[in-house]
Structure formats: C-alpha cells, structure tokens
Design goal:
2 domains; 13 strands; alpha/beta; 6-stranded mixed beta sheet; 5-stranded mixed barrel; OB fold (Dihydrolipoamide Acetyltransferase, E2P)
C-alpha cells in the first residue's frame, strides 16, 4: 500500500496511506542500512510502500524523491541530515533580533534549496518588535533579496492578516524552516488554529529560541495547502557541492558568470 510519511520520531514513522489511514511504521532491518549515507533514511514527505505484518506496519520501499533539502549532520560531520523531501516551496523565516538570522545562514539555505530546484519565499517576521534602525536594516536586506528574484515579505505573524501568504501556499507542499524562536510554530498555528502546536518564548539570557518542534511533521491545512513544520536549525552546513558549482546557485552570480573572463 502506498503512503506519505507525515512524521518521524527516531526509528518510528507515521504514514498516511492512500486510503487516508494513519499507521505507525518501522523499517525493515536491511532497508535501514542499505546504501544510506544520511543519518535519517526516511524523512517527512517521502512516498513509501507499507505492508502490515501481524500487528506491525513496515516500510518496505522508498519511492524516488522529486527533491529534498539536506545539510551536514550535527553529530557526524561526515554524514548528512535530510530535512524533508518532495517539497514544492520552502518558507524561510528570518528575524533580525530575538534571535538574529545572519545573511550567511540565509545564503546557505538558499543555495541548498536552489541545488534541488526548490523555490524559496523569505518571511521577515517580528517587524513589530524592531526599532527604527533595525527596520531600516531589514528593509535594505529585503530589497537585496528581492532584487535577485526572491519573493520577500515583512510580517508580524501575531498581528497581520496573512491571506497573501496563504495564497502563495495554496496547492503546494510547503516546508517552513529557520532558527528556533523565529515564529515557525506560531505561523503554523495561525494558518490552522486547531493544530495547537506548542510555542516557546525566546531565552532572555542568550536571545535565542528554544525548540518547540522536536521532530518534523507534515500538516494538511484547510485552505488547500500542506506544510512541513521542522525543528529550529542553528547552523546550516552545505554538502554535495563543489566549489566550482557554487556560482550556479547564486542568481546574482549565475546571471553574470558567462561574462567573466576567468570562467
């Protein structure tokens, strides 16, 4: 029976089958290690085949992925960690304070998404908390990314009407990402209030977010979209890229590289 992985918790996988049944699954032992280079062989968004064996459901086949986003594993630097698979669009939430999102983090995420042909929308959140200096900095940063072709929006999830964001998401599998504390779970709760996802305040000591989402999970939304809520990411290490390829994934470089005499 075919299905889609909607949640992963360690070695357990929640799958929604084609007939709408939600089943808890494990992997066949051989499947777990065969040719897998990432720390997580099955991820949210994966399309799989499942079979029932006595009282247990087992994942027996992973279908080819349309795409995925991956980064270096935190614990094992030689391995990779896949964040999600089969994504139509990524929403990267950015805050200039509480916590600070650096341009290095933004650019690494964009390169990873561009590598696999995933469109990215940049959501600059918590605009209501910015002083005039940070508002000016945010507006300048927003213009930089808009100029190279990214859709950018300055928002306050708790105050604004986000119907335009819903419109961008409709009919797509959307993955939401960013540091802990930028407002990912708050946005998901706004989009679908009956999900009641836990949220946590930013730490006053370190001005960093605290994990409220510990495992990735796919939610179907009542306006015809779905969203993959992911745990907060502190760092984003790039993998599977050669230095010579990098220019291909920066739109501002790609447009000019053929004019470069050193290319």
């Amino acid at each position: 029976m075919k299905g889609v992985v909607i949640k992963t918790t360690g070695k357990r996988y929640t799958v929604k089958t084609d007939v709408g049944e939600i089943v808890q699954c494990r992997l066949k032992g051989k499947f777990r290690i065969a040719g897998i280079k990432s720390t997580n062989p099955i991820v949210v968004g994966d399309k799989v085949e499942v079979v029932q064996e006595s009282e247990l459901w087992m994942i027996v086949k992973l279908h080819d992925r349309k795409n995925h986003i991956l980064r270096k594993s935190v614990n094992l630097s030689k391995q990779t960690h896949i964040i999600a698979a089969n994504i139509d669009q990524a929403l990267l939430m950015i805050t200039l304070d509480s916590p600070v999102t650096t341009t290095g983090f933004i650019d690494r995420f964009l390169v990873a998404a561009n590598t696999y042909g995933i469109e990215v929308v940049l959501l600059f959140n918590k605009v209501d908390l910015l002083d005039n200096e940070l508002k000016a900095e945010q507006e300048n940063l927003k213009k930089v990314y808009e100029k190279i072709g990214y859709a950018c929006f300055a928002i306050s999830v708790i105050n604004d009407d986000l119907s335009h964001i819903k419109g961008l998401m409709k009919g797509k599998v959307n993955m939401i990402s960013g540091h802990s504390g930028v407002g990912k779970s708050t946005l998901v709760n706004y989009l679908q209030p009956d999900l009641h996802i836990d949220t946590k305040e930013v730490s006053d000591t370190h001005r960093q977010g605290q994990h409220s989402t510990t495992f990735s999970e796919l939610h179907e939304l009542d306006f015809g979209a779905s969203i993959i809520d992911t745990p907060g990411i502190r760092g984003f290490g790039l993998v599977e890229l050669e230095v010579a390829e990098l220019a291909n994934y920066f739109p501002e470089f790609f447009a000019l590289k053929l004019e470069c005499k050193f290319y």
